[in-house]
Amino acid sequence: MFEHEDDVVQRVIEQLRRPVAIDPALDARVMEVIAAPRPPTRAIWPWLAAAAVLVSLIMWRPWSRSFRVEAAAFQFVLVAPHANSVSLVGDFNDWDPKRSPMRTANGIWATVVQLAPGRYRYAFLVNGVEWRADPGAPAVPDDEFGTPSSVVTVGGRGS
Amino acid sequence: MGIERVESSDAELVRRIRTGDIGAYGALVSRYRDRLGRYALHMLGDREDAEEALQDSFVRAYRSLARCDDPARFGAWLYGILVNRCRTSGARAARRRRMFVRDADALHGAAHADQSDRLEWTDAVDRALARLAPESREAFLLKHVEDLEYEEIAELTGAGVSALKMRVKRAREQLQRYLREAEHV
Q1: Rounded distance, CA B129 to CA B179, Å?
Q2: pTM of this prediction?
Q3: Which of B22, B80, B104 sits opposite A21 (nearest CB)?
Q4: Taking CB atoms and an 8 Å cutoff, what residues of chain B touch A34?
Q5: What's the total number of domains in chain B?
Q6: Contacts of B180 in chain A (CB under 8 A)
Q7: Is the ipTM of this complex over 0.90?
Q8: Which CATH superfamily is domain A69-154 in?
Q9: Is residue B108 part of a domain?
């Protein structure tokens, strides 16, 4: 039956190329999810939020420290002397270029954003079309969106 | 054929979505669901996992639409999201279930005399595919089933063209061997 590899593989390919039946309701489910407000409101959320706050308080023990953990200002800088515009986009601004436009002085672009403790992925959008990772920060190893990005981690203890 | 620019309509739909027309996304979902669903199904080997990965990819793509820097190539960008989603899903599931997929034609159009042979062949192919290493299965499916060029696959997967060619070659050899074994069981 299997005399030539090419024949067998060709039959496999033909088999795998056949259309498959995907649940017709999938379209509606996708549209339902994207139309829903974020984050999804479920009865368990308030309890999870309360638990998270409690754990945070226990871990940080603000009553025993002289500082409180709050959002802090962070400056992002990119050297791009030939750029006409640069925006900072990331998890902290929903990747919206309009929210964090950067200002330039002699080709050095900078902006300041307030970041609460956490881990954020971000990138620079140059001239509205070119995505650049931050050369001075760790790269996101496997970005599912196919564009380069970096990651910054803001510590929770005054860092 | 490869991942093609779908005229200008993808770009137009993306533009409408960006201006607040959420309904336009339904057209993109409808356009890509079957082709992407086929890839997910063959990659993961499980219908439930595949549809979950597909749905999640559509949702993630919508929520990250600002990062699609070439709306005319929305399909290619979406493919990349699904490929990555299948990788994580596949790793998590570790192919914990072996529910092999037969296409609807094979199941319902089986009034032919060779029905059992055909189902047997379908099962044999699915089992052989499932035995491939994930990266080999991924490369084989993208190259030969989804008909992408190596350069496009490299863009999607982050692997080099040489490595991809090797993976596809290995996959072809292994499929041949596994199917030969199945014939003699």
Answers
A1: 10
A2: 0.61
A3: B104
A4: 22, 25, 58-59, 62-63
A5: 2
A6: 2, 8
A7: no
A8: Immunoglobulins (2.60.40.10)
A9: no
